[in-house]
Each structure stands twice: as C-alpha cells, then as structure tokens.
Specification:
This protein is mostly beta strands. Helix content is 0%, strand content 37%.
C-alpha cells in the first residue's frame, strides 16, 4: 500500500505506522488481533533513522520508505481491515481506517495440457477446479479438422475438466479447443477465475 502525506497543516510528520487484521471476526487462531508494522521514518529525518548499515551510531531504526508498506503472510479468501497513523512533534495521531479489503483465494487455474480419445476430451489445469462453478457448454468451441463442434457435456474431477463431444473424433484428426470466460459460473479455483484461451492444440490419442 502507498499513501500521500497529510495536507491539513500542522507539524511535519516524521513517522508512520500501519496495522492490519482479519475482518471476518470468525477466528480461533488470533487472526482478528491487530498486527502492526515497524515505525516508518522519512529518510530526511537523519536524527531518527539510519540510511545505511545494520545499525546507525545513534542506534536509530532504519529509514524505511515512509509512505509505502507491504503486508505479507495474508490468507486467501479473507477480508482484512487496514489502518494507518502518523506522528509529529505532538505525538502519535489516531488510527485512520484505510478500508476493508478482500484477498482472493489464490491464483487462477491455467490450462496445462489438452488431450482427446474418441468423444471425451480432457483439459488439465495446474490446480483443482471448483466443482460448484461449471460453465455452459456454449462457451467452448472445438474444431475437428476445421469443422466446429459444440460440446454436449462437461464435468470436473480435481484439476481436470472433461468435455464430451457429440461425435467422436478418429485417429489422425486435428483438434483444437477454445474457451471464452463467461460472467456466470466460470472455470475457477477458490473463486479465482481461469482466463480464456483460444485454439489450443489438443493431443489426439484415439487409436
């Protein structure tokens, strides 16, 4: 996260601090407790922070970027509350809520391999697919030797999407598959949606 310095006047700000916590409040592992960042000191305040080396002769803390901070070790699929405060000659100000943010569950599934035997095509992704989000067959286009086929059925097992064709392919035919991500029930992994793909070559192992 990044932010701009306050513009309301007053004494110059010479330190910031960020805190975050899970916002769902349904926790038993301490996830709802606030986690605070180190104090972030502007580089120009040499009397407070050091610019090089592990320890300044004055013993001051590091000169971290005063207006940016990376929050790490977050859990996918959770909401997080984030707040920030600033310090000037009068001391620390009140915590100001930045807002609540939802962290996606993970990376979207990406197609790794496609193969077909007879009337059953297997689209194999790099991670499991949500079984409760199965798109319509109309968002898939299959080409067999240049002739278009619309699948007649879809099913999911782990990281594989099985696509059933109305007409089985024969040995030696060239097959490609395309997918346009729909707005409703797309292929996804923990709510992270798979991207569209076009004219992907399908290995035809039909004897």
């Amino acid at each position: 996260m990044e932010w701009e310095p306050p513009t309301g006047g007053g004494s110059e700000v010479y330190a910031y601090q960020v805190r975050h916590r899970r916002g769902d409040y349904a926790f038993t592992d301490g996830g709802g407790d606030w986690t605070r960042s180190p104090r972030l000191y502007p580089r120009q305040v040499e009397r407070i922070c050091r610019t090089e080396g592990p320890v300044h002769s004055s013993g001051g803390p590091a000169c971290l970027n005063p207006r940016s901070y990376t929050i790490s070790n977050l859990i996918g699929g959770r909401d997080y509350d984030v707040a920030i405060r600033a310090r000037n000659a009068n001391g620390w100000g009140d915590w100001l809520s930045v807002g609540e943010f939802n962290l996606p569950n993970g990376f979207p599934p990406v197609l790794q391999h496609a193969e077909i035997g007879g009337a059953t095509m297997s689209l194999i992704f790099d991670r499991s697919l949500d079984t409760d989000s199965l798109p319509s067959t109309s968002v898939f286009w299959v080409s067999v030797n240049g002739t278009s086929q619309t699948p007649t059925g879809l099913s999911i097992s782990g990281s594989t999407l099985f696509v059933t064709l109305g007409t089985a392919v024969t040995s030696g035919q060239t097959v490609t598959v395309s997918y346009v991500r729909p707005t409703q029930a797309p292929l996804q992994h923990n709510d992270a949606q798979a991207p569209s793909f076009s004219n992907v070559s399908v290995h035809n192992f039909t004897p």
